[in-house]
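Session log. Operator J.P. requested a structure for one protein chain; no other inputs attached. Running the standard single-chain path with token output.
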Amino acid sequence: MSAQAFVEDRTRKGIEDSKKAFASVERIERLAKYHGDKARWVVDAWTEVWLSPEFANWSCRMFYQMCIARF
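Structure written below.
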């Protein structure tokens, strides 16, 4: 896993696959080891943002340009 600078189709496909996998109670229970009773919320927050149409063209370029402009 790495930080994402922009949204790619293959990233979205992987997130779609993960969302399906986390429909399993066993997967959520394993994630609860790290996130407690917020495990389902963590998965939903992550997948809903990354799979939303509004996020499809997101890029960190704007943030990079803001940082460069400050120096």
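Operator note: The chain is about 65% helix and 0% strand.
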